[in-house]
Design brief:
The chain is of the alpha+beta class and 205 residues long. It contains nine helices and four strands, in the order ααβααβαααβαβα. Helix 5 packs antiparallel against helix 6.
């Protein structure tokens, strides 16, 4: 029986310890990315890119850029989650499948492309904000997908973005937003840490 989304969210931990002997297949990694791409993005930009780091050599380079965090190498895969700039320039082909599927019509496609061009062209701050938002939503979706498949994960902001960009030949439009380690948990991981009470973080208006 599949776990409910509530069970997946409540059982997820940020894993530091992974069983380095257990690997994931190409198909398993691809399925995690497929599920991650079902995350929302403005205009359905899909302004993200996923680098799945699996080889020992690549893991060593990424671990060095991540302040030598061992879990980068021990996890079956570490994803470099990137948000992409200039997404408005690729919106038409991104939306075309929605027209073909009858979800939106050509008039709406044209309207959305025009609106995105007006708001995003020469607006570096908005482009970066959208890239960070989309990559973050995709990263969380990927972690929940991993949890649902019995895998552990951890989001890492502790890395040298310039080093990651350099080591993995990222384009100037590709911003490394976070790293996500995914694999089979080893012993010694902390349980999910307690959160603030809802009344501390929510305001009804």
């Amino acid at each position: 029986m599949h776990a409910s989304i509530q069970e997946i969210i409540e059982s997820r931990i940020s894993a530091n310890n992974y069983d380095s002997s257990r690997k994931l297949s190409h198909d398993e990694i691809s399925e995690l990315v497929r599920l991650a791409t079902l995350a929302p993005s403005a205009y359905n930009f899909q302004n993200w890119k996923f680098l799945a780091v699996v080889s020992d050599e690549a893991k060593q380079r990424l671990q060095a850029a991540a302040f030598n965090q061992q879990k980068v190498s021990d996890a079956a895969v570490t994803f470099i989650i990137c948000g992409t700039l200039n997404a408005h320039t690729q919106l038409e082909p991104a939306l075309r499948p929605s027209v073909d599927a009858g979800i939106i019509d050509n008039k709406m496609l044209t309207t959305w492309v025009s609106m995105a061009e007006q708001s995003h062209t020469n607006n570096a701050v908005l482009q970066r904000d959208e890239a960070l938002r989309s990559a973050s939503l995709a990263a969380m979706t990927l972690m929940l997908a991993a949890q649902g498949k019995g895998l552990a994960s951890c989001a890492l902001s502790g890395f040298d973005a310039d080093a990651v960009t350099r080591e993995f030949d990222l384009h100037a439009t590709e911003i490394p937003v976070m790293l996500i380690t995914v694999g089979y948990a080893a012993t010694g991981n902390w349980p999910q840490k307690p959160r603030k009470q809802v009344h501390e973080v929510m305001q009804l208006v």
